Amino acid sequence: MSATLETDKFHKYFSGSPLIKVPGRLHPVEILYTLEPEMDYLEAAINTVIQIHKCEPPGDVLVFLTGEEEIEEACRSITCKLGDQVTAMPSYATLPSALQHKIFDPTTDPTKIYDPITRVESLLVSPISQASANQRAGRAGRTRPGKCFRLYTEKSFNELKTQTYPEILRSNLANTVLTLKKLRVDDLIRFDFMDPPAPDTLARALGDDEANPTKTGEKMSEFPLDPQMTKMLIVSPEYNCSNEILSICAMLWKNLRNKL
User: Catalysed reaction per UniProt (predicted)?
Assistant: First the structure.
């Protein structure tokens, strides 16, 4: 399922079910750290790409950044500084899949590149885990020996937490609660979560009503949107304002995705 999956936790949770490990191919990867912490990691990443382009043998460069805005800014900056010497291509979740797949196209150039209180999801820049760092380094060794340039010191790496916090501990659970209710999971407070979410987050998602979902609630569980926006869309025909609500939801969703 994932190179960073805590397999022992899943193995115990599912009562000792069979565990199959499929080893991947990995060539040697050389890990390089900065000597001192970087004050501006985005600028440091861009400068590192330029140094790799000038000093390293032919290959590809994969840069991990924190969000769409930084990724696009890095692509613009690298293209501005290196021109047609490189092909800088973005890749992030909201980019259409056809554009994401362009990173696999051959190039002529040698290098390319929820707060439960406020009920607002936001992107908070935070350190990754050692498991995520090692997984990212492994990307450099899929097809041949590679190098991983870490823009932090080795001491900083050793201070990172071992594993990333599960998504259920960091997300708005409103849609999750709707789905579980549709599956007739009644007692969510005592539900045997593998990693129990914070009580405040679960309480906000449940609201004051712990009953089974209505027909409208079951429809809402099918939408990949925040329940408030989903409810607006479903009831908008009753008020003859579907076009307006569609525009509002699209604007709110785009703004949220840009932040993430």
Answer: ATP + H2O = ADP + phosphate + H(+)
Most confident segment among 2-11, 156-165, 167-176, 195-204: 156-165
Nearest Cα to Cα of residue 138 among 25, 16, 251, 255: 25
Q: How far apart are CA 173 and CA 201, in angstroms?
A: 7
Q: Supply the pTM of this predicted model.
A: 0.52
Q: Which CATH superfamily is domain 167-259 in?
A: DEAH helicase family, winged-helix domain (1.10.10.2130)
**CA proximity to 113, closest of 71, 68, 67:** 71
Domain ranges of the chain: 23-159, 167-259
Question: Which contacts qualify for 230-238: CB closer than 8 Å, 24 or more apart?
Answer: none
The rounded radius of gyration (Å) of the Cα atoms in the chain is 22
Architecture of the domain whose range is 23-159: 3-Layer(aba) Sandwich (3.40)
Query: What is the chain's length?
Result: 260
Which whole-number Å values give the CA distances from 131 to 36, 41, 163, in the listed order? 22, 20, 6
